[in-house]
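We treat protein structure as text, and this decision shapes the records that our systems exchange. Below, we set out a record of this kind in full and without editing:

***
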Amino acid sequence: MLDKMKNVLITGASGNIGKAAVEKFIQEGFNVIATASPRGLGYELAGLSVYEADLTNEKSVEDAIAKIISVHQTIDVAILTVGSFAVGSIETTDGAAIQKMMSLNFNTAYFTARPIFKQMMVQQTGRIIFIGSRPALVPAEGKNTVAYALSKSLVFKLAELLNAEAAENDIVTSVIVPSVIDTPENRKSNPSANFSDWVTPETIVDSMLYLVSPNAKALREPVLKLYSNS
C-alpha cells in the first residue's frame, strides 16, 4: 500500500461506494479529500477534507483540483465514483438521453481525471480508479441501457489512454467493474432478489485498497471485474 497519510481524493463521496471508500481509507490512515456539490455530503468525519465542485462543469472541477493541490501539495490516489444510471433501448434512447448520460458518466470522469493526471505526471506517481459497468462490456446487458452503456464504455477507453501516456511513470489507472451492488436503492427496486449474491460496497473498497498496494504495481491496464452470481 502507499505510505500512510498519503492524499486520497474521492468523488461521489455521498454515494454508497464513495462513503464506504471515505470511511475505509480514513481507517487505513490515509488523508482523505472529497468533492461535494453545494448540498454537501450529508455527513462529517474526522480526517476528511471537503471541497465544493460541480463535476459536470470543467472550470469548476479545475478550480477545485487546483485548490486541493495548493493546500495538500499532492494527489496520490484518485477514486472517481460519480455517475448515474438509466434504462432504455435503441428505440427509446434519443440524443438528449445520450448527452445526459455522457455528462454524468464520462464528462465527470474526464473533467476530474485530466487535472489529477497532469498533477500525477508532475509527481511521476499516482493511482486513478474509475468505476466501470458490466453493460458497457456485455452487449446483451447494454442493449437495454444504451445511453448508460455507451457513456461508461468511454471510461474504459480513457483508462487505456491514460495508461498509455503514463507508461514511463509510476502512474496506473484502473477500472473496477461491479455487477449488482448491494445498496438500499437496489434492494428496494429488486425486493425478491438474493441479496447475498450481490457485491457489497465494502468488497469494492477492499479491491480499491488492493489496487493502491504494491501487489498491483505491475498492472498497467487493469480491469478488475467483481461480478455477482446473479
Observations:
- The helical segments are 16-27, 58-72, 95-123, 139-142, 146-165, 184-189, 201-211.
- The first strand starts at residue 7 and ends at 11.
